[in-house]
User: Fold this.
Amino acid sequence: MSNLSDLSRSSEYLSFRSSIPLRKIVVDSDGTKAWKIFDSGPKSVTCPLICLPPVSGTADIFFKQVMGLTTRGIRVIAAEPPPYWSLKEWCDGFRRLLDYMELDKVHIFGASLGGFIGQKFTELTKNCPRVASLILCNSFTDTSVFEYHDSAALFWLLPSLVLKRMLMGNFITDKVDKRIADSIDFMVERLESLTQTELASRLTLNCIPCYVKPQLLSDLPITIMDVWDESALSSRVREDLYKSYPQAKLAHLKSGGNFPYLSRSDEVNLHLLIHLRQFDCTDFTASYISLHKLTAPQGQPEEGSVSYFNQKDKFVKIT
Assistant:
């Protein structure tokens, strides 16, 4: 246990892993590719918040969102994809996952690559929309901003150690506060757990020539969340994202580094709640509390506030 990071040994993370099961869902015809998900909150909510990780992340990096938002009535699904080598393949797999879970529409919280692919999925499903809204955290609209743009087609040949070193350059722990340093240590552990195929496929998606067509997403509710301190993305990339979505709401964090959902989880969760609040009492609510109010018979007294949701859709009132 002593070799684990502080976050891996924290009571919150241990509670998360002991109370919420990791599910593996195979949706591809060959039966070899399994999505890994943590699904928390009432299953009666059919438009949940789905969290998509960056290149180096696994599904459990969003444990602070799962634990924090579920107590507020939000259904949260942290999803980790299997290796996909093209954006079309990824989007087809994600659509099959939503079909399997019987989710017509979802809200996507995407971090870095997760945000980029969330935009592309929204774009590619424009004619049959599956995304109710987007929250983009430290994300981008064009892969040409990355250093390995010209060699992306060769990533599948490189050994795991080389791929990990390519990413380690973004994990700088100098002159950062303890919470940011802890988030970096936790992400390094996650990176070490990924296989060569997982890393190579994600880096390929991150760096192959591709860009989002923001005009196709102009009518979608979008929140752009980023940090003002040093992160892997340059100020030019952030400005390009702002210009792509002039209608988007901006959620700025004064600090947080590359992984604010870990280092500044309270602020991130608050911005997520504010974003999702606009869907309360609609068909696209991610909240069981709002859904309960929407479906409750007229004149029926409201239930007490919800303190915790288990895996069987039961809720506990604070008395």
